[in-house]
């Protein structure tokens, strides 16, 4: 769900006064509003001089929630949607595509997990260069990892054909939109702006959204004993899944690894995040594969798919 601040432009009643009232009661997003006792919240609003406007803000937030509910679909409608609108996008790497049963699936959020120097960004860039031949790619860069030069290396097959290479490179790079995103609030703002553009059909057809890396945005807000950070994490993840399903685009996010009990590495975002990805694959480095389904890219890197 949206942070309340991002709704102010479209819904003036959710102004700074309403946001401050909500923040004083631990409410920062529409999702936070859902888990509060609304009768208690209305009673608290009655104590303020601007009580009527605050109650109007609560009503407006609830109507936003109602308006975003998806219509009921039966099994046949879901099957038709999957067959007609949810295509598979090749990453450009044959072995990864094989493990993903063809590639990245539109309508799904796929997670790529691995420690530093495990080729996560390389996979993202290769997928970007391949999908951008067919449609637009939105690349949310959290660590200055996007490299047009690397994109060019993936595309150039014949160095002698300079004119042909230039034509292909120009077409592909025009289809890539890159944003620098350094915190989860900017991620949510950009995601909601993307949804708005997709809904109004502004620009070309976006086929792939990449967040490299989502864990670097979420990890800073997970500290402490409060639930606000986890609520933001679930809100961001759920919105990306919804974006993928409603607008038939593939979403690829990367997640780093941390040391767990006994020095065993595990994904950084923990158990609460596990319900978000629909599909995931891991790229450990300098580690012997301990899973049956894996493919070697070189002598030090292996991939695992979990679905």
Describe the model:
This protein is α/β, with parallel strands linked by helices. It has two domains: 4-67; 89-306, Rossmann fold, CATH 3.40.50.300. It is built from 13 helices and twelve strands. The strands form three sheets. An eight-stranded mixed beta sheet has the order 5-4-6-7-3-10-12-11, with helices on both faces. The radius of gyration is 21 Å and the shape is globular.
For this structure, what is the CATH class of the largest domain?
Alpha Beta
- By CATH, the topology of the largest domain is Rossmann fold
Query: How much beta, percentage-wise?
Result: 15-25%
Question: Which value, in Å, is the CA radius of gyration?
Answer: 21 Å
Our count of helices gives: 13
Cα separation of the termini? 25 Å
Count of separate structural domains: 2
- Residue runs with pLDDT of under 50 for 5 or more positions: 286-307
Give, in spatial order, the strands making up the sheet with the most strands: 5-4-6-7-3-10-12-11
Order of secondary-structure elements: HHHHHEHEEHEHHEHEHHEEEHEEE
Mean pLDDT: 79
Assign an overall shape. Answer: globular
Subcellular location: Nucleus
Pfam family, one: Rad51
GO biological process, one term: double-strand break repair via homologous recombination
Function: Involved in the homologous recombination repair (HRR) pathway of double-stranded DNA breaks arising during DNA replication or induced by DNA-damaging agents.
